[in-house]
Sequence to fold (218 residues):
Amino acid sequence: MQNTRSEILKLIQLSNHQTVSELAFELEFAPATVRRHLEILQRDGMVEFDEKREGAGRPEHVFRLTPKGYETGTREYDRLLVDVINEVSDLSIEQINGKNGSQVIEQVFESMADRIAKVVVADDTRAPIVKLTEVLQLRNYEPEVVTENGTIRIQLNNCPYRSAAMANPVICSFDSRLISSVMGVQNLRPKCIRDGFGCCLYEVEVVEGAESAPVQGD
Fold:
């Protein structure tokens, strides 16, 4: 039962909102079963709803996640803290000279990403997208990667630092820099949870050697 409710939370998160009928269709459950799960999630403070009325019929409830509901995914705040402390401790006076606090923080996150990417890229001869998918999985981004029409779409179905990223956009420079460094590209076309999307999505133009086959994340 808990796995079903986790799946309901994930479906609502990725689309930003879901109705009972939409969830029932996705899960192949009876609407009454979905309603029972939603009642439990609402009781636990994970979801809330608005009423949507179309025509003369009964209004339909449109469910969305609460802040508590968004925090049910795997979180890595402890790892983030350790990584930041280690990176800051390695900064030299020359690296921070003349920079304000925001610039220093951004440098820290980009340096963290570059350090990880350097290890990943040098690790073996596999295609960059395969190595990138692996490191994103290890850091609990729950990536889903698809190659289509000359574009690699990298969808991050979980943000392990979501609350921090919503409070400060500099956090997003970490995964953006990590993806661009491993893939060897500069210009990403991102969609971000900070802009109201259910998950972060990056698109990369396919270059020779960057991918070998479409990779589906777990």
Q: What stands out?
A: The radius of gyration is 20 Å. The chain is about 50% helix and 15% strand.
